[in-house]
Amino acid sequence: MKFTLEIEKLNEELIAIHENSFTILKEANLSIIVCEKLLQKLKGDLTKHTFTSETEEIHFFKVTKQIPLIKYIYFSEIRSFEIRYPKIDCLAQKSYLNKNFDQVNTFIHNNSEFIQYIELEQTHLDSFYFLQKHLDKYSLSYIKNYYNDKDFSTPKDNILAQYKAYLLFIKYLNKRQSTGLNSISDYTTLKWTGPTVAFVELAYALYLNKCINNGNLTLIEFSRALATIFNIPNPPIYKKFSEIKSRTKCKTKYLNELSMNVINYIENSDL
Questions:
Q1: Contact (CB, 8 A) for 242 and 41
Q2: What ranges do the domains of the chain cover?
Q3: In the predicted model, what is the mean pLDDT of the chain?
């Protein structure tokens, strides 16, 4: 069973969603949908297919199925985190972040032997961990509601996917903690009242100048944070940037206006 084209399409769809979904919740929701769609296809194809060897079956559950399932779990965790994330109390925000870190640590502790097996790239138990015929010897590992279907699972393929998803989720939590977004609710009274294209000019200028977090964040991450501060719902960053590029005269009209306003203020100020 080869799904090279399907996997490539999934990756392309996830990239497109990331580039065009301005809020992380929207990105998570859309990503979950496309991952679930591919998982359903894999499950449907599996009912019509008989593996020609144990090696083929192991590869399917240890490699192929992992690609959409890891991202499915990862974005499900992000969605759950963001929906429940406290919006005002900074102490509550910190406590909730720590709770999620503890959840990951507990999972890793409870599955330490299997995780060690994976990290050491061992394979001698693959025939027990990634073949469906051994489900009667090993209880189906429970991981919330992430496709715990005995007709589409092996003893450890779900655990492997959750572990890999949690590695990504840890990075997300660390970035969420370090970006300073915890206190962003303090700025909810600010509202951008200028043209959206002007906001996009400003966002690109600040991002490209690498003056925020030493430039250690993506354009999407930075733009989301800035838009949240100014209460801008889903500004079309890439669409407006295309408009800026197509200008025949001044490419940075708003930034030039900012510069001139500051210069005029300096020259006319009594301070």
A1: no
A2: 4-181, 188-268
A3: 87
